[in-house]
Structures are given as C-alpha cells and as structure tokens.
Amino acid sequence: MAKSDDDYDAPTVERRWQEFWEKTGLFEADEDSPKPKFYLLEMFPYPSGDLHVGHMKNYFIGDVLNRYKRMRGYEVLHPIGWDSFGLPAENAAIQRGISPAKWTEENIATSRATLKHAGVGYDWRREIAACRPDYYKWTQWLFLKLYERGLAYRALGPANFCPGCKTVLANEQVVDGVCYRCDTPVERRHLEQWYFKITAYADRLLDDLALVEEHWPRHVITLQRNWIGRSEGMTVRFPVVGVAQHFDVFTTRADTLYGVTFMALAPEHPAIPSLITGLATKDEVESFCREAVNKTEVDRTSAAAEKAGVFTGRSARNPLNGKEIPIWVADYVLISYGEGAVMGVPAHDQRDFLFARKYGIPVVPVIRPADGDLARENEMTEAFQDYGVMENSGPYSGLTTEEGNARLVDDGPRGGWGRPAVNYHLHDWLISRQRYWGPPIPIIHCPRCGDVPVPYDELPVLLPAEDKVDFTPAERSPLASYRGFIETTCPACGGPAERDADTMDTYVDSSWYFLRYCDARNDKAPWDPARVNFWMPVDQYVGGDEHAVSHMLYARFFQKFLADEGLVRDIEPFPYFFNQGMVKARVEKADGSTSMEVMSKSKGNAVAAGPFIAEHGADVARLFITFAGPPGKDMEWTDEGAEGAARWLARVWRLFNGNIAAVRESVDAASLSASEKDLYLATHHTLKRVTDDLERLHFNTCIAFLMDFVNALYAYDDKKSPAFGYALYHLIKTLAPFAPHMAEELWRRVGHDDSVFRDKWEEYDDEAVAAAQVTVVIQVNGKVRGRVDVEAGSSEDEVFAAAAEDANVARYLEGKKVAKKILVADKLLNVVCK
Ligand SMILES: [Zn+2]
Ligand SMILES: [Zn+2]
After folding, report:
1. Residue 584 C-alpha to ligand 1 middle, in angstroms?
2. Measuring CA to CA, how many Å separate 82 from each of 46, 86, 514, 549, 581?
3. Distance from the CA of 179 to the center of ligand 1, in angstroms?
4. Smallest Cα–Cα separation from 227: which of 426, 428, 430, 429?
5. Which bound ligand lies closest to the C-alpha atom of 448?
6. Residue (of 535, 534, 533, 577) closest to 555 by Cα position
7. Which of 275-279, 301-305, 807-811 has the lowest mean pLDDT?
8. pTM for this prediction
C-alpha cells in the first residue's frame, strides 16, 4: 500500500499491480472467448540490453490501445517476442568473446524485465524468440515449402556485398548505395546465392495495396508501389552485326525507337566477354568493366556523376530502320534494371543525352511537342523527355506517343522484333547470409543428386555450438569452417554430401512471426490454421516506416504464398498499420550548441528506460510519451516535460485525497442543480472526446482533455456533490489506458476487488452531449470553409482545434500562417491567414 493518502509511492504501487495482472492472467488471450477478437501487434523487436525511452514509444502506443480495447469488450491478443538472430550478437561474440546465444538470452531477459516494469500488458505465455530451435525449425520448414514450389532457388548473379558486414544483402537493405546497418558503400559481386521468388507475386503485391490503402500511411503505400515499380512497355530485339548474338532491351518508350543512336550495356553484362572476343578493344573494355563494377551504385547513377563508357568495337542493328548503332559499355547502366542493356535515345533521355554529347554520338530527335516543332539536333541543350508526336519514324510519323506505342506493341510480334513486356523494379529477395547467427538453410549438396532438401522430419537443422565455429568474418559462412556441421549424408542416395553453409536473413524470421503468436507452443506444426484464422488478420499494427519496403513487403509476400498453400485464409496480414514517430532528445555539441536528434545511445542523448522507470514510475514515462505530441509525429523528450507529467499525475492523485468515499458510479441526472448539471455535462463531454480520440489514436489530445477536466474538478466548490463523485468515477476510467497503475490503485481504493480493465469503458450520454453542442461556422479569410460541432461556450482555441481537424478547412490552412482568429461565441470563427 502507499504510505499515506498524501503520498503516491509509484514503485511500490506499480510493482504490486504488475504482479496482480500477471497472477490473474489479465492479458492472456483466449481463442475460446465469446468476445470479438482484436489482434494488436507492435513490430518484432530486436532484444536490447539497454532499452531507452525512445524505444518505448511504440510499446506504450500499443498498450494504451490494448487496455482501451479490453475495456471495450474485446478479446485482445497482444503478444511479444524477439527478433533475436542477426549480426549484433555475432559481432559481440567476435569483439568480446561472448557466446551469441548467451548474450542474446541475457538481452532478452533485460528487455523482458524492462517491458514488465513499464507495465506493458502482454500475453507472456506466447513469447517467442527467432533464435531458438522451437522457432527456427519452422522458419526452415517454411523455406522447404517455398523450395517445393520453386519459390526458393539458388542462382549465380550480381549481389550486393557489404565489406563492413562481410555478407551479401538484399536490395531492400541497400539504402542510397550503402548498407542499411553499417553505412558502408555496397559492392556488386557475382556470387551464387539463395533467393525467394517474390517477383512471382509482384502484381498481387501491387494490386492488393488497394485492400490496405485506406488504413496505411499514404507514404508507405507510395514507397511500396515505387519499390515494386511496375512499368509496361516492350522488349525489342537488337541483333549484333556480324555475329550470331542479340540483345533484348526493355523500353517504356517504343515511340522513340527511330531515335536510337547507340546501345549501352551494364559493365556486369554476362554477354560482354563473348561480344569482345578477338577484338582489338578487348583489353580496354575489360579494364573499364573491372573498374566500373567496383564503383558504388550511387557513384554510377547519381545525376551529378559524370557518365563514363567505352566502345566495344561491335554494332547492333536497329530492327525498325535497319541502321547500325555502336554498342557501348556504360557505367550508368545497372544490371538490375531490365536486362542490363538499354537503347540509347539521346534526343529523348537526359542521361543518354549527356553520354552522347560526351562521346560525340549523334542525337536524332524523333518526337516533337504536340504544339511545337521538332528540335534541331545542334540546338538541343537537353533531352526532350515528354510525350508528343512521332516524326522521322517511317510509317509511324504523325502518331502521338500513345498511338505509336499501341501500334508498335501490335507490330512487334508480327515483325518478330519485339513483344509487349512488363518490367519491375522489384527483384527476387536474396535471403542467404555468410554469417553464423541465423537459421541454417536446410539444403544438402550432393555430388550425385545436386541440391536435396533436408527431410521435414529431420528439422531443425541445428546451429552448431559457437565453440566449434570460427566466426572471424572471411567472406564465407563461418559454418563452412566446421566440418562436423558441413559433412553429412545425402538423404536421397545415402552417399557423402555437404550441408549448405549459409544462414537465412533475419527478415525471413520476421516474415511470419505474427502467425506463430496465434499458436506459439505448437510443436507439431508452425500453427494450427484454425487458431491463425481466429486471430488474423492483425487489427492494429504499430511500427516504424523504416521497414516499409523490406519487412512490410516480405511479410505480405509470405502471407500470400501461405494463403495459396491453404495454410492461412487472409491475403493481407496487416490491414491497419500505424506508423509511430520517433523520440528525439537534446544533443550537446562540442562547441556548446545543442540540437534535437533521434534518441540513440551512440549520440549520447538516450534516457535509459529501466532506471527512469525505477526512479519516476512507469505511468510518468507512459503519460509523457503519449502526451508530448501526436503519436504519428516525432516528439521531443525533455526533463521538463517528464517533470510536468509527474506533477500532473501527483495533482490527479491529490484530487482523490479525502474524496475517495464520494466516488460514485451513477447519479440521478434529473435531480441535479444547475452547476451540478454543468459538471455532469463536462464529464460526458470529456468521455466523448477521449473516446473519439482514442479511436483515432490521438492520444495526446485525450490527455489534454483530461487535464482540462481535472482543472474543472479542482475549481468545483461542492466536493460533496454526487455530480463531483460521479465525475471522479469517470476520471478513473478515462485515465486508465494512459496511467494504468494509478487508475488501478484508485479503483481498488474505491472498493473494487478486480482490475479496472475487467470493467467496461463507460458510454457517454449522447443526448446530453448533443443538446449541449452548437454548430460553429468556420471561415478562412472571410469565406465559409466548413462547420464544426463543439460544446457550447467553447473557447477560440477549442473551436480552432476542432476546425483544423476538418479536412476541407485544413486544406485552406495548409502552409499558411494564422495571423488572427475572431470568434463570435457559439456561431462563427473567422481565421485570418497570411
Ligand atoms: Zn554493413
Ligand atoms: Zn545424393
């Protein structure tokens, strides 16, 4: 118990309620419940030995919803687990000689303890860890399912290699040419690697965005759409002059075909060696390719970079006009786009234009603006890239770009020189890694049978103990260093064979973890479809947008594949995605200046979560983080802000001192005096506003409303009034999702035996609230732009806040500075903008 009425002893109170929740199984989710289900999920966290308060934001957002939805009568599944494979554990092992498994389990224990002390309510019976054999057995099982369907394959191809991490990376893990993890510029290497054929699902991944569009942040939809990057066009075949070779080139602008004056190949193009065999240019071309391949993608493709190339000594024939065009190798052409060969149309493509001018290649304009003349080659200072009308294009002259493309798509197959084609920016997902701390790839290489899958009943393929393996990064998997792991017998012929030495990327682990939570202890199958179909899809997903084109895309791909296999019902795993903002904090610079930057240990501005909670209490941290700004926006953590949250909670606590006995669940509204009626109305108005904003995840405004409400209660004279006790009752309920420990303590003192979270969320008195509302007309610079319903007597700021939420009003306010607000009470607000 707290020491006295006057004293709120947060550490004691909080610990006691955390134990109560655990003992009574408050957050255990039950498939047999008659209640409607609500699956609430925060993104799979990496277990950290030192969580800071910035990490806590998405857990707190999730937990506010968790508690609110429970009170609203939902059976809430709110699970947690650990994305616990990956490089940090392995690097710790290399640098400090610690076992990755032990290091990881210690971090899990620390993370778990911090989340428990923060009072975040999870169903701990469902806790999972990707690095444990009872989980990665099923990751391997899923690999084999994909393999069976031809969707997991090994191929020699260009791969992104990070010299820092000493492993290959998926395209999604290369951000602006550097490694997403360590910022080292990524190199391209030709290597044999494992891929998942995500491109087989490209169209569905694109089309099904329509199913989630309404409930995802728009920029995440755009990122995925652009990453998949579907473009329609043609593949045109250019035969090489003098040898039996040809190049297939993808273009979205077949209408510019008569303007092709050269062809450019990527330096990695596999046909280059045979193309230059026996030519005088051979040495020069080879050395150019060697150098270009070692440049980073950014250096090769950025607009500022000088384009470089070399003539191969061969020519190709334009199939439309029969003209011979020189074949060049150019560094700005990437093997990952199209087929690694592009047709150079300098008059109508800016990069081709710069390249042509540099090397004296002709520029032949063939498209004129719809309302203008065809440019003259000598006068062109840049390419004309717009659509227009075809000229100097044989039988196609005079057609518009659209007409021309349609005609060419028809004529290509007939003439045998081209066919309609679709190109994607998305490539197959490279999933093998040359590192130790990941799930081994369950494939055996047999000299007689080739690649043979490990039989299902022999899973998991266990990682060998760390003392057997040499971790030192050496561009090959550490597992290859341990013959006891590698050497095995072939499941097909029984002869000697070798295990695959690579492990899978951690993004494979996080592509299906949300399904495992539905049936976490199943040891016969990855899940029982009935259980998965009960809980899925996730009703609210909370996480950062840094995973928009990696995890969010991979998980959608897995879900669709599993639906095709009949293992799940839904084709989209996360129809509702909320993207939380970051937590920033002050960084002191060497020169004495300060700036606000995203909280991180390396910047020295991280506030460790465990010690903060031990000193100030979890409710203070929760309240401050949810109050400091809209959850979707970045927020700033300041000591003053945290102190403010602590002061306010103390103020709430004092309000109940001496008044606990007055708390009452109901009043007879008809018998209230005029001032009591006002308080009754304020109570329901607060309840309505908090309810509405909880539904919209506007937690910061919920707390602002509660602050106003508490002020009104302090100002209210008659603390003995039933309306006052009634208001206190509702304050406990509405406070509960945000400061759950204090709310429980108050609830208990009122005389309840069970958790406030097993009680219902109160319904507001609709009639009373509606009767007390007025409609205020909103003008922006004197023109009517909307109408909002607000409580009678609302202040200028309150009406403005409501108006700013109106989509139409918001449009007229966007990007403008509010100079003045003029309120005619309960009737009109004119906003004067500059
Ligand atoms: Zn790296
Ligand atoms: Zn064999």
Report:
1. 25
2. 6, 11, 11, 21, 21
3. 5
4. 426
5. 2
6. 577
7. 301-305
8. 0.88
